[in-house]
Backbone:
């Protein structure tokens, strides 16, 4: 292995270490606690090392969010595997979305709640965001007029359900019933 290859590998490992430390700290204390100073101390590197990878906290959260979108897209895609019937596919995709939001709240917060500078529905939208959205569009089936708009409305409903459930503003006991109503409305 050449010196250049080793340096690139070490840089990639530091990048991963920073993201992992940010997620761990956010899970333990919330995103407010994530600062470059705290991260530098946690990973035992100086702040300039962090700044060689990220401009600041918003860039770190954006990187976490992009990873989250990659994971979300994979989960949505996998939820459709070996399933037939448009309604069943839609239900599985919606359930997978809500499960992701419930099981990865810190990541979900970075993806959808906190400011990161990531752009949606623009030329600058990162591929991971496009992939996750494309899974929502595909779950709606091919017979839609303005499929992107319908997918945005579906996504809005799912996001609202996820945020309201997380903040305990709607009862968990009705989650399945809400999911059924949503799927019926979009079927």
Residues:
């Amino acid at each position: 292995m050449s010196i250049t290859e080793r340096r690139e590998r070490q840089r990639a490992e530091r990048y991963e270490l920073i993201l992992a430390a940010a997620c761990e700290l956010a899970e333990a204390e919330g995103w407010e606690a994530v600062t470059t100073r705290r991260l530098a101390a946690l990973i035992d590197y100086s702040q300039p090392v962090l700044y060689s990878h990220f401009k600041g906290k918003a860039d770190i959260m954006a990187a976490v969010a992009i990873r989250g979108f990659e994971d979300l897209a994979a989960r949505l895609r996998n939820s459709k595997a070996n399933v037939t019937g448009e309604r069943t596919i839609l239900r599985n995709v919606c359930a997978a979305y809500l499960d992701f939001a419930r099981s990865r709240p810190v990541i979900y917060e970075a993806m959808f709640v906190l400011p990161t500078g990531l752009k949606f529905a623009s030329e600058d939208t990162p591929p991971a965001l496009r992939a996750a959205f494309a899974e929502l569009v595909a779950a709606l089936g091919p017979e839609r007029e303005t499929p992107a708009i319908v997918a945005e409305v579906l996504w809005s409903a799912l996001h609202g359900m996820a945020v309201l459930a997380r903040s305990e503003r709607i009862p968990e006991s009705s989650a399945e019933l809400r999911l059924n109503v949503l799927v019926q409305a979009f079927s």
Notes: The chain has a mean pLDDT of 93. The chain has nine helices and no strands. Residues 3-29 form the longest helix (27 residues).
